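In the design runs reported in the main text, the only information available to the sequence generator was the tokenized backbone. The following block is the verbatim input for one such run; it is reproduced so that readers can re-run the procedure and compare outputs position by position.
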């Protein structure tokens, strides 16, 4: 949710017009109009809260994720705070990546509870999984096969 949808809930078209006209007034009259606008919005908010069954407040969309919440906060605050929310969002993304890596490690530990014995590891098993992967043994046999064809 951005700040505008919240403000629009408690404002009216007439109040929005008054906000636009506010800078056109003489400086000594602006304060009175600004207070009138805010007081009108406050009264409307109090009315909406009293009428809980109106459903107006339930129309405010909640952020669907923490990422969306931080982006919304960042977009609706001063630049100095915006940088802090961006850093928090980056930190959370890094933590999620670390969690994914830990999940992968845990899955591998479940697949290989005794660990991988490198003495029994056959690198050619990887060529079955990854066709572009070749071992030294595969490279030697390929060279021998090519040399054998050249001799013919």
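Verbatim output:
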């Amino acid at each position: 949710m951005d700040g505008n949808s919240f403000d629009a809930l408690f404002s009216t078209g007439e109040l929005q017009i008054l906000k636009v006209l506010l800078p056109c007034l003489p400086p000594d009259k602006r304060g009175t109009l600004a207070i009138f606008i805010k007081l009108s919005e406050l009264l409307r908010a109090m009315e909406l809260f009293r009428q809980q069954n109106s459903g107006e407040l339930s129309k405010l969309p909640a952020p669907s994720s923490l990422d969306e919440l931080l982006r919304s906060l960042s977009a609706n605050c001063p630049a100095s705070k915006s940088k802090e929310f961006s850093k928090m969002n980056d930190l959370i993304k890094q933590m999620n990546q670390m969690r994914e890596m830990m999940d992968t490690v845990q899955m591998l530990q479940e697949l290989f509870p005794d660990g991988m014995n490198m003495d029994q590891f056959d690198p050619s098993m990887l060529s079955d999984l990854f066709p572009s992967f070749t071992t030294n043994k595969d490279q030697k046999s390929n060279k021998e096969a090519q040399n054998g064809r050249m001799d013919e």
